[in-house]
Amino acid sequence: MTTAVLDARAGRRCHNALNTLHSMHYFAPELGQELGALGITHPKAVNLAVRAAALGAVGAGTVAATFYNYKYETVARHVPAVWETAAPDRVLAARARAADAMLRRLLGEEALASAEMAEAAQLALRATEACSRAARPLYAAHADLPVPEEPHLAYFHAATLLREHRGDGHLAALTAAELDGLEAVVTHTATGRGFTPTWVLRTRGWTQDEWDAAVGRLRERGLVDASGELTESGVALRDEVERQTDRLDRAPYEHLGAQAVARLTELGTGFVRTALAGGAYPADLIGKA
Q1: Rounded CA separation 150/24 (Å)
Q2: Residue 257: enclosing H or E segment and its boundaries?
Q3: From CA 159, how far away is CA 14, in angstroms rounded?
Q4: Please, how many CA atoms are within 13 Å of residue 236, restricted to the half-sphere of its CB?
Q5: Phi and psi, residue 195, nearest 5°
Q6: CA 49 to chain centre
Q7: What is the CA radius of gyration of the chain?
């Protein structure tokens, strides 16, 4: 174990590799197939149920609060009704089956059985030892789930824990920056690294009028210009949000240490490159338009 100070950017790079692998299951056909077999067929219901299931049979308010950038009324159309179709434990089991099938398809059996996968799982799980449950509801809920025995599923589980740990802290940083859920998405899209507006409106439930209103509020604050691009102040605010998120998420990576973080990033990046080459994400997912 080490408590040496680590460059926050190294932790962010490691997180990005892990989160990219975790997040691809939301776009995997296997997830829709597994949830469909339980009777959950609406794409929004699938997305909401699979991420919220670790929280238990919660209501729309809890899901909207912890997901942050989803429109409450959209959430309420599917939650808590979805739990009447399939209880959270059945959804979690379906998620595990979907993740297993997805990783086998995208990475191949050889990679799943490799020493590198076992090493990545061990390193990622070690990083989670320094995560904190305090004020991190989505992380805390997932942290109560058992660690799978198979290395590739243990790696996916650890990636999920580290993603939700950082995500919970990110919401605290967004709140401190006084960005509501939609404003947070609009500014992220404006960086060129977030979902396109089309994907935001399709998956988060907002309307074009609501998007335009959020842009108007941001313009009044001097954070975006007339064309919707980030101003100098907007860029500075987004940078500060990321720095605050790094600070709140530093413990797992400082616990792991610089050398191990670099190795986990290397391994995770290799898995992600293979998965991306296999078409893990829609081609039009990321960008400003």
Answers
A1: 19
A2: none
A3: 10
A4: 6
A5: -60, 150
A6: 14
A7: 19
